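=== Per-residue structure ===
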Amino acid sequence: MEINTYSKFEEFKEKLKNWLLIQLKTHSEYENGMCIFLSMGDNKKRCEVWNTFDKNFNTVLKRIYSFLDKLYSKNRRIPEFFKIDIACNISEESWSEVDFDVLNQEHNNHYRKGISFDDKFHICFLEQEIYGKAIIKGISFDKPNFFDEKNLNDAIKSKYKNITKVFKLDDIKKVWVFDTVSAFYENEKFIDLQTGGVVNGIRYKSENCKDEIKELIINNSEFLYNQILDDGRFIYGYFPAYDREIKSYNTVRHCTSIYALLETLEVVFNKKYLNKIEKSIEYAFDNFYKIIEEKGFMIDGEQDLEIKLGSNATAIFMLAKYQEITGNDKYLKNAEMLAKGIQYMIDEYGQTSHILNYPSLCVKEKFRIVYYDGEAA
């Protein structure tokens, strides 16, 4: 709910103060100083993050009020999305140790800490900012993460306009890492978020879990529906750090996305989805479906074309779910042809070949990813 009247704005500030006072009483470590982050944005613009630090709570609150007053005075509103974070579990670490931890993560995006480059939090970033601005970067799943010096300096310049110093990673000696106690403002109240680890910044499960899950399904299905273009192709995704659309495409994900959207119709049957779903199925057959030696295959790639066992399997998922939901068997023959393609990729001993070259059908990779066998089965 938008805060767009002065009375609502004053009520909002009072609720924010009360939330902060509760945290101050709960966490004794804040007596040594509080670093507050305010993240604000709208549904068509990335959140901007402002922060302040002081040992005196009243000073912190005064700065927050001053910042919000200027924001409201300028725009006559507070942005639709508002999150507050307080740094906690602050730990001074050597830069070499933090860098080592990031380089040796088993997966991308698992360094779930905020980082300050000084003990007074003059230059600091939330965990969400670190990945949202690609300060920690991962090129691919099988390559180590690393701190990106250019992206760090770009992020500093963007957030802290008065800082002109250029940071060299090799010159950094120590940093202060931290968790956060957080809340999101929604429906005129602050909703507490979880702290630390993989659940950092995520809401707690509500008491009415069933209704919450249903709402998630409905909202996500609407988002997925809106990502289907008029020709049936998906807007595949975005690189959030660079605000850039992902131009590559993937047959497996095209088919599983349609399968997932069809599954939501078992929860709430939204008839308007069917037209775009059918266009998207037709797009898959117009662009990916090939018949070779009386067998059906879904191709993938843009230059070095290949056939994935998983592509055939997920296409069958999509077609079977469509028939189950609509009662229309118009794609049954296609599904049967794809099943013959899967049979071709399984030898007499039951061993699968995951990737074939197109159009030769010779084996490109015997194994690529563990999911393909289960999908095919």
About this structure: The chain has two domains: 6-199, 212-376. The mean pLDDT is 94.
